[in-house]
């Protein structure tokens, strides 16, 4: 069977080497046991967590005043956990509204304190990122979404802000370097560039925790997980292990800089074809285009099904666009090889020959 | 290599058939993709969740006014989520304190309402279960822990209560039948009888939800997950899939009644040896002994290391007791075959010949 080209937005493609090793460890890891059968208090699992944490620190240059956590509940849980831990009821956080995920984050934050939406691109269906907006004094933090999976926008560079930053990096963490010293908190569901679903990465500046007045349930307090190295309760051991394998793979390929190069090649190839091919157009302001999720439409949307058919025949899966945007979305995360993007470009070019 | 006998308390032994199929699906499931690479919105994953939910309903005879949920965060998260969803600030819940887990549940519940600890076995290091205690009128619910992993006690039969019940069944769900109509909520971390760590089962009586006055974050509201069939956000797809495989295995072996028989044989064999062998004694009141976690000590605790060594030579892992009890704990969950218990009994008998 020829290779399947996996463009799902998440859970998403994982490196083949990772899948082979994960599959093997799901059957036998150490002492004749599956990794899934081993106590989280056993030495082999403790070593998995320690190495995974250390690799995040190494790959992202995380300084020692931050703590890397492996949590559960996805970014959707960080939407409330961040303000619950950081924002007193009488304090104000700023949010930049750039799509579905930030809109959800705003809704949850309002339960805990004052929320000021200081910029939004809702006026154009989130097809661009607001820039040059005024930043009020005295915000407890400013919340950003680095990459928007649904609409395909991405902050190209984190600029200079007066406020401390909290950022949802679910869909582009480990795709590029960033200066974490600007951030009080970075969080990411694993199921794009890091691993399978079921684990959430959080990188927390340690001295921001414990400063709100409300009583926080033990499991929802970042301090609990900082103190216990993500092992306060039984963590999702197998998902964290698959993250470890992915982190090792990133390092082996040359670290974050290698991912930058890899992702630039893929997105240049695909956006190049979208801009060249008269049948297609991109949905996003060019300067805000995501290197992770490439959204595009057919000028003639009556051809949509024919294009999906042609893609399917080329073993391409997961390119149907989100219902709020329509058309097509090709997610080209770290693990995707350029040959898969080339396969999609080939389909677009053949489609032009038939329908152009 | 000879078989490893896995007595870990959790994450714990899984059936070999489950591990073989999980390992295979971690590499290739459908369309040439690993199950871990597939969108939770794809048809194959939707079918995994639907079948898993239906099998829980079938195996436990769950009536249609209840909803089966696959959540994250473990029982430790249900400790706060249950009172957050069910208990108004001016209402009172009753808790029976039978060990570490109920003590933690009590701590979290106090954040949300009034808690009355109506019985406790703390006076004897939780080595028995309180019985015949007075049950006050007007409790919003009564919280029980069906099986205590650390001390090895287990409620043998759920009696008759005035109050509606909320129960932590993490370590013995699917080991025996129970009448769910007495319960408003049953919850269980998966990593004992159900699957790997990273997923939490909750069975919620639908009409109990939405009756508290506080504002609940979206992800923490049972109603969110009831409405979206556990797919409000990206769920832990692979862990849920492994639960599905385990549920199929339980059904294939004959359902819950087959588990009852299987577990009785194992615990009779092991408790029989503990009671017969003059070197050992059980730590728990006989009438409260757990069929899942068998706790026992050596009369001469200077022999502890020698016994652990002897067990290790017989490929027995995971029998060191929790530090709060000491000695040994053999967890004999559904997936364990009687031959593993026999291997442990053989070691105990050989140990008697040498040290008796």
Brief overview, please?
Two copies of one chain form a homodimer. Chain A has about 350 residues and is of the alpha/beta class.
Describe the 3D structure:
Two copies of one chain form a homodimer. With 356 residues, chain A is an alpha/beta fold. Chain A has two domains: 16-253, 3-Layer(aba) Sandwich (Aspartate Aminotransferase, domain 2), CATH 3.40.640; 255-355, Aspartate Aminotransferase, domain 1 (Alpha-Beta Complex). In chain A, α3 (74-86) runs parallel beside α4, α6 (237-253) packs across α7 and α7 packs parallel to α9 (338-355). In chain A, the strands form four sheets. Chain A has a seven-stranded mixed β-sheet, sandwiched between helices. The first copy, chain A, has a three-stranded antiparallel β-sheet with strand order 11-12-14, with helices on one face. In chain A, strands 1-13 form a two-stranded parallel ribbon. Chain A has helices at 16-27, 43-60, 74-86, 100-109, 222-227, 237-253, 255-276, 304-313, 338-355, and strands spanning 5-6, 66-71, 92-97, 114-120, 142-145, 147-148, 153-154, 165-168, 183-189, 200-205, 280-282, 293-298, 316-317, 328-331. The mean pLDDT of chain A is 97. In chain A, a hairpin with a 4-residue loop joins β6 (147-148) and β7. Chains A and B meet through α1, α3, α4 and α6 of A and α1, α3, α4 and α6 of B.
